[in-house]
Each structure stands twice: as C-alpha cells, then as structure tokens.
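Lecture 7 notes: from sequence to structure.
We start with the chain below.
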Amino acid sequence: MLPALKPKELTICGLAAVRARFQRDAGSIQRLYFDYATGRKLGLMCKALAAQRKIYRCVEPAELEKIAGSVHHGGVIAVVTAPVLRTPTAADLRAWAGRREPVLVLDRIGNAHNLGAIARTAAFFGVKHLVVTDDPAAARPNDAAYRVAEGGLEAVTAWLVADLPACLKALADAGYEVIGAATRGGRPEANRSAVKPVALVLGNEEQGLAPEVAKACTRLVTIPGAGAVESLNVSVAGAVLLWELIGRR
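Predicted structure tokens for the same chain:
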C-alpha cells in the first residue's frame, strides 16, 4: 500500500510542473511516482532521488489517481514539502520597488484553479511576487493550483498578508502604483507610460475587490467590453491586465 501524505506535504502533478520543481528545489521532493511511459523521461530525477535514498517508483495509472486525488496527474507525481508562506516586511516592499519588480495581489480569489492559472500567467510575464490574503475564503497554493500552474508557481514567490489594505498602502508608500481591477467604474486605459513599478490587484470571482481594498489602490482600471457579458473570468482578466501593464513595457 502506498504511504499516506504526511502533514505539510502536497502533490505536484504533470511533467512540466515536476521538472520545474526539480530544477528549483530538488531537495523538497520527498517521493516520486510515475507511469511507465513518463518514467522513461525521468532518469536524471530518479538518479538524484536514489542518491538521497528517497522513494521513486513506477506505478499503475490507478495508483497515480489515488495519490493525486485526480485523473489529471499527467503521468508523474512529486510529493513535496509544502511551502511556508511568509509575510513581506516594509523592507521587502522597498527592495522590490527599488528593483522595479512587479507584484500581483489577489483579494480573496477563492478557486484554486484560478489561482494556478493566474500564477502561470504571472510567471510568463516575469512577475516575481504573488501576494494572497489570509482569509478563510481565499485559495492557497495547493495541489490543484500547482497542477494548473504547470510550473508557474516555481517561478513566483507566494506571500501571505493578514491586512490587505494595509499592505497595499505600504506598497504605495514604497513607490508602487497600486492598480485595482474593477468590474466597472475604473479607467479603461492602462497608462503604460507610468514610471512607477506596478502592483496589480485582482478581486474575488463573485464580489470583486472589497471596498476597503479598492480604496487602498492608487487607481482602478476596468477592461472595456462589448456588453454581452458583465465581466471576464478573473484569470483571463488578469492575463489581459498583466499584458497591458507589464508585458508591453
């Protein structure tokens, strides 16, 4: 019988995601499971695990489904040490601003699949910092998020804050333009000529930005549409705005 997941572990599924974790932090991989076809692509990884006396095993697809808790395992699963999310300090924010590093802030994004898709897009555009709120309704970087991110969560650092409005004010004080994505009422243009580094804030799938979060932003933007539907999925809206605010610069 396969061992149960220990506390503070999570599963990373799919070849791209597992390879990204191995490249970034090979030591965090505790166990590796794969099907026959995928195992032929994992020689270097298995050799490294063998040197560390860690488990790596070829198993049947049904066993992979049990470990992953999903049929979407991609033929390989790495059981890894779960990350501990830290809270950024004022000094951290000033250092990010000094290096002009863009920041993506999520206000109670509740769906882990959306979180994973957003992280993948953030990684694509070179965003280094992903801030999530310590709210019971907010998704954290879990198994599903890592699977959807396809390695994106290895390229960004996730941070956790308890008081999001205070964090946004601190970002503004550090020199960021804090731009909130509003369903309606924001300016339609992205103002790509802005000289300040950007912190983009995306709101909850159903409720959007909390009023106190919107108030803490330095400005709000709204993506103009044809009016057939009210808004985009938050991960799609995030991709559009990351391109406009960061990708084009």
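Points to note: Residues 90-247 form a domain with the Alpha/beta knot fold (CATH 3.40.1280.10). The two ends are 53 Å apart (CA to CA).
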